[in-house]
Amino acid sequence: MVNKISRRGFLGSVAAFALTGQAAFAGPPAVSLRPMLRGGDLYKRAVPAADEIISAQKLSGKVAFAVADTASGAWLECENGTLGTPPASVTKAITALYALDVLGPSHRFETQIAATGGIVAGEVQGDVLLIGGGDPTLDTDALAQMAAALKAAGVHGVKGRLKVFEGALPVLHQIDPGQPDQVGYNPAVTGIALNFNRVHFEWKRVSGKYQVTMDGRSKKYRPDVTFAAMRIEDRTMPVYTYADQNGRDQWTVARGALGGSGARWLPVRKPALYAGEVFATMAGAHGIALGKPEVISALPQHEVVVRHQSDELRPILQDMLKYSTNLTAEMVGLAASQRRVGQVADLRGSAAQMNRWATAALGMQAPALVDHSGLGDDSALTAIDMARALLAVKDQDFRAILKEFGFRDSNGRPVKDQDIAVDAKTGTLNFVSSLAGYITAKDGREMVFAIFAADAKARAGISRAERESPPGAKTWNRKAKRVQQGLIERWDALYGRKEA
Predict the structure, then answer these.
(1) What is the mean pLDDT of residues 320-344?
(2) pLDDT per position as a tens digit, 255-298
(3) Environment class of residue 286 by beta-carbon count within 10 Å: exposed (0-12), middle (13-18) or buried (19+)?
(4) 36 by DSSP, 3-state: which?
(5) What pLDDT digit, counting tens, does each position of 174-195 carry?
(6) CATH match for 7-105+355-495 among 3.40.710.10, 3.40.50.620, 3.40.630.30, 2.30.38.10
(7) Are 379 and 93 in contact, with CB atoms under 8 Å apart?
(8) What sign for the dihedral angle of Cα 436, 437, 439, 445?
(9) Residue 395: which residues within 8 A CB-CB, separation 6 or more?
(10) Using CA atoms, how far apart are residues 165 and 282, in angstroms rounded to an integer?
């Protein structure tokens, strides 16, 4: 059963907590908090200090963290707690809270098929419209169902054309311009999305020649597409290039990088054409000829024929937090901002609205986010602010949609029968690693925490071309995760055991 968060209940509980727990966490500590061990705590002196945990991994850069008792809101330990740090995908936790409050946990996004000019004897007298409603989870299977529903509604012909409306949200070429062209996690953002705005590129070498396909595959269907094309070129570097050429996504790939066969998802820069082309293919399978899609910026008068609704927002957000889907974060964040204040121009403007909301609703003091996914370089949060936000919603069952954080042993293998329960959101960028969530210690004590690690100098030295896999980044990230686990184990040992 889905637990629902009402706006009144959400903000009321936050306000009540702010009044009753104000002395505990309203302001950040003036200095870093370190545990004060009493005589009866001598056994705890064997617990490694935070700086020992960090230095043992030889982790470069800076580590900021804050941990607080969930019940009282009292800060237990903080280091660099007010240092603004890139939060990476931990940003999505704030976005989820924002969307739950503004849109509501039972909100559903709706994609429509409509007709202009009326329908006479099964023939649309004008155009067929594919109207995006901001659904980040729309896929090819759903478009196939909508095409079948259009036929079931009695439509078998169209006098006009297929037109696609994507203006329910701002039309943005990509999330972060600083990312390499080919990374699938940085697609365009508009009011319509298909398959998370990724197109599937596959290649096979047959008799010394490559066969290439570009398709919009999902679980049941694999329709080929023409809005995006791939050309193989005789070069070594760069591996990929992208150009907006003749109204389509034109890719090239270096022949020397392909090997025998393989596949990858590439970002889509023209989501409306992508969705339109796939829908036309699916409609054609039912005998409804629609031709090539046209993108429109305004909706004419129309009659809705087919409606497709997404799942409820809460499970959508749970999947977003689990799989860290950037597109979902940006689309639901934009939708929430537009519900809150009306039309917004871009991600920075929308994130600014979320920052204001977080200050008022969560008690955060210095949120400085530039998007809803955490992909942008310029975002910054403090560890204390992130922990403060988690404290504010401690009674709203937010923990239930976070992902379980599993420990690993010294050989990197998952720890079985882990006795410290951690539910958290992770975040990873090159030379940035973040983790924030809830801890249940061995004795049942609950804590909230945030850990932000970043090597700003190493990150600044990465060229745009290297960002997909820069030298040293994976090793650094593994060290950061060991530090995160070490800190959590430290807090369990220091604060998660009852006094004798």
Answers:
(1) 98
(2) 999 989 999 999 999 999 999 999 999 999 999 999 999 999 99
(3) middle
(4) coil
(5) 999 999 999 999 999 999 999 9
(6) 3.40.710.10
(7) no
(8) positive
(9) 13, 17
(10) 18
Q: How far apart are CA 287 and CA 151, in angstroms?
A: 8
- The pTM (predicted TM-score) of the whole model is 0.91
C-beta neighbour count of 22 within 10 angstroms: 12
- Percentage, residues of the chain above pLDDT 90: 85
| β-sheet bridge partners, residue 307 | 112
Cα gap 77→62, rounded to integer Å: 16
Q: How far apart are CA 196 and CA 332, in angstroms?
A: 13
> How far, CA to CA in Å, does 393 sit from each of 70, 236, 389, 437?
10, 51, 7, 11
pLDDT tens track for 268-277 = 999 999 999 9
The structure tokens listed for 248 are: 């389509």
Q: Which 3 state secondary structure label does DSSP give 17?
A: helix
pLDDT of residue 5: 37
109-310: same fold as 7-105+355-495? no
Residue 368's nearest CA partner among 392, 351, 349 is: 351
Is the link from the previous residue into 238 a cis peptide, with omega within 30 of 0?
yes
Residue with tokens 């030379």: 431
Q: 104, 313 in Cβ contact below 8 A?
A: yes
CATH number for the domain formed by residue range(s) 109-310: 3.50.80.20
Strand ordering across the sheet containing 261-267: 209-215, 198-206, 261-267
The token pair that represents 462 in the structure block: 């990465």
- DSSP for 310-373 reads ---HHHHHHHHHHHT-HHHHHHHHHHHHHHHHS---SHHHHHHHHHHHHHHHH--S--B-SSSS
DSSP code per residue over 119-182: EETTEESS-EEEE----TT--HHHHHHHHHHHHHTT--EESS-EEEE-TTS--BS-S-TTS-TT
Q: Name the DSSP letter for residue 41.
A: G
Side by side, the strands of the sheet bearing 228-233 are 228-233, 248-254, 240-245
Looking only at the bridges linking them, the beta strands covering 128-131 and 110-115 are antiparallel
Q: What is the DSSP secondary structure assignment for residue 380, as one 8-state letter? A: B
Q: Alpha carbon of 240 to those of 106, 236, 380, 465, 468: distances in Å?
A: 41, 10, 31, 10, 12
DSSP 400: G
**Residue of 466 and 116 predicted with greater confidence:** 116
Q: How far is it, in rounded angstroms, from Cα 438 to Cα 270?
A: 39
Q: Pairing mode, if any, of strands 421-429 and 128-131?
A: unpaired
Residue corresponding to tokens 């009493």: 38
Kindly list the domain boundaries of the chain, sorted by start residue. Answer: 7-105+355-495, 109-310
Whether 17 shows a pLDDT value over 80: the answer reads: no
